[in-house]
Amino acid sequence: MTDDGRQYLCAMRWSSLFVPTLRDAPGDAESVSHQLLVRGGFIRQLFAGHYTFLPMGLRVRAKVADIVRDEMDAIGGQEFLMPAMNPASIWQTSGRWDSMGDVMFRLSDRSGADVAMGVTAEEVFATVAGELTSYRQLPQIWYQIQTKFRDEARPKSGLLRVREFAMKDSYSFDIDEAGLDRSFDLHHDAYVRIFDRLGLEAVPVEASSGNMGGSDSIEFMVPADTGEDDVVRCTACDYAANIERATSALPPIDDTSGPTEVERFPTPGIRTIAALEELDDHAGAERQIKTLIFELDGSLALVVVRGDHQLNEQKLADATGANQYRPATAEQVHAALGAHPGSLGPVGVTDLPIYVDPALEGRTRMTTGANEDDWHLRGVDVSRDIADPIWTDLREVRAGEPCPRCGEKLEIIPAIEAGHIFKLGRKYADAFGVSVLDTDSAARTVIMGSYGIGIDRAVATIIETHHDDAGIVWPVAVAPFEVVITVVSLRDDASVAAGETLYADLGAAGIDVLLDDRDARAGVKFADAELVGIPYRVTIGPKALADGEVELTARADGETQRVALDQIAARLTEAVRTAKAG
After folding, report:
1. Extended strands (E) in 77-163
2. pTM for the structure as a whole
3. Which pLDDT value is given to residue 210?
4. Which of 270, 283, 403, 469 has the fewest CB atoms within 10 Å, counting from its CB?
């Protein structure tokens, strides 16, 4: 079935099918999936970030959606279809009309009312959940497969980063945290099954909840060279986290050298960690305090990390709950501390919140800026000399640091986010007044979870991890067609007749079969079949047919074997069903 409930044909003739294959990919196609989706005639770009799905692409997309539906239905999910256009009022109620920023497409209708194209659907589902009245109706799991719109600043890589895309988003509603835990675990296990059926080796990792809010958050990340996310994982145990949440076990630092009391000393022209290292033997990068100033929802704050560490801005946003955050301007910095970047420090600051990374906890004899250009302080004791520090994890983990669980080395790999599940808590239920009567007839605000999978991104991610030099290598479960019958010569009546018979037999068996009946050279037909990635190719030619056989080629490994003509239909039917069963 397609994602709008229509039955798709399981048998087609290539001569009738619109498959505009290309020898070369467009010059702006950066990722492998983008190149092959265009070359294989699966998609065409309308304008930046918006794509037309051609018949072959739509077949793959529908199969991905069907697998997602199967597993959502298996955990008790009920399918909805919400409007893609939303009134501003529901986003204002949740507080996300402003916090979504430029990513939200906004417009006004003819009466002047503000509306938005749906970025996600927590607000819309919460409006319907207001009709829940009793704990007896819980738990509920609701989902939809709907178009989402996000105004990406730089859409790229074909379907991996777009502005209009199909997404499965589901929501759980429970009476208490224990119920949410069950719903979360149900989705976690369903996602494992979904990605397994899609042929994706998705790794569950700890993740940031970002603008969604809530507590626990897990991303399903597929390692890929084209991935835009960095995943930190242990080389020895099962620890894995998005770099926005990752931690490590740092070795202790020797603080036995240097002054024990604060000393002010001149540093003319010194503006960097490296320059200060060269000037002072006691000021190695790990012995320095790096101070940054950020504007968080309109208010300034100091952000303090070790000199050899980098700030992860998403960690800062998560720790502070800031919806809008950015480094302060040079003018703001000077107005707040009286110095320029490179001479800043937390000592003596009492009128701004100071967020400090735990790697500095207990450190002594440190060096930092004096909040006066060309001067620094040494002998700084963090616990003694920084007023009211707010301790929170801020630093970005680096490859080679020890795992926080087992102590072995961590590695950082690029990955594609294929799915994300959140424990939302009561943020949206509170905002929209979603409550039910409990066993004591008292009103209880329900607790929610949110769970997403990008359908279009899954199509691209499968290609990123299933291709070779000749083209796409689709897993059987999502291939546009499972078998292609290639008739070598249309001038050989016996070959044509055998092809037609096999085509009818496979179609009757429910196999998605494509008959390549084009009057083209065999090499062209073979190349196209490999490019579009059909899992099994049956080649019918006069030479093999004279022996009562055909050639069967598996796209995954390229191996070809002869099979008796009277056995090939049964052989393929069994192969396809076995592959789909996993």
Report:
1. 78-79, 85-87, 106-108, 114-117, 140-149
2. 0.90
3. 61
4. 469
